Amino acid sequence: MLLYEITVAGRVDLYWETVRLVRAASEEDAVERAEAAGREGETEGVNGEGEAVVWRFLGLAEVKEIDLDEDGDGDLLDRSFTRLDRYMEIFGEDGRPFGELGERFSRQRDSTA
C-alpha cells in the first residue's frame, strides 16, 4: 500500500493510498521495488484552474504477499493489514498527520483560518 499526499496551490488537499503489485523474489526486493514505484509516482502539474498540484510519496504502509494460481488469478484487494504502526507514524489517532508532516499541516491549516 503506497501512501501519497496531494497538495493543490500549496495546501494539503487529500491523502491517497494505492495498491501496487510487484513481482519480487523476496519481501526485501518487494519493498525496494514498491518504494521505487512510489517515488516514481510523485508528480507535479497544473489543474484546470491553473493551480499547482503536487503528488508526494509519503511511504510504504504495507507489503503483502499474494498467491496467484497458474492463470494469474488470486486474492488481490482485500483490505486487512498488520502494520497499523506505519499508519500511525504518518497519521495520528485523530486522523491528523504526525511529525514533520503534522507540523506542516498545522501551519497550513492555521494560515488559512
Q: How are the elements arranged and paired?
A:
Blueprint: E1 2-8, E2 11-18, H1 27-40, E3 43-46, E4 52-60, H2 84-90, H3 99-112
Antiparallel strand pairs: 1-2, 1-4, 3-4
Class by helix and strand content? alpha+beta
Total number of strands:
4
SSE order: EEHEEHH
Q: pLDDT average, as an integer?
A: 76
Please, how many domains?
1
Major beta sheet, strand line-up = 2-1-4-3
Shape call: elongated
- What is the share of helical residues? 25-40%
Cα Rg: 16 Å
Rounded to the nearest angstrom, the distance between the terminal CA atoms is 33 Å
Largest sheet: 4 strands, antiparallel
Contiguous uncertain segments of 5+ residues: none
How does this structure look, described?
The chain has about 110 residues and is α+β, with helices and mostly antiparallel strands. About 30% of the residues lie in helices and about 25% in strands. It has 3 helices and 4 strands, in the order ββαββαα. It has a 4-stranded antiparallel beta sheet with strand order 2-1-4-3. The longest helix is centred in the N-terminal third of the chain and has 14 residues, at about 25-40. The protein is elongated and about 45 Å long. It holds the Pfam family DUF4288. InterPro entries: DUF4288.
In short:
With 113 residues, the chain is α+β, with helices and mostly antiparallel strands. 31% of the residues lie in helices and 25% in strands.
List keywords for this structure.
alpha+beta; single chain
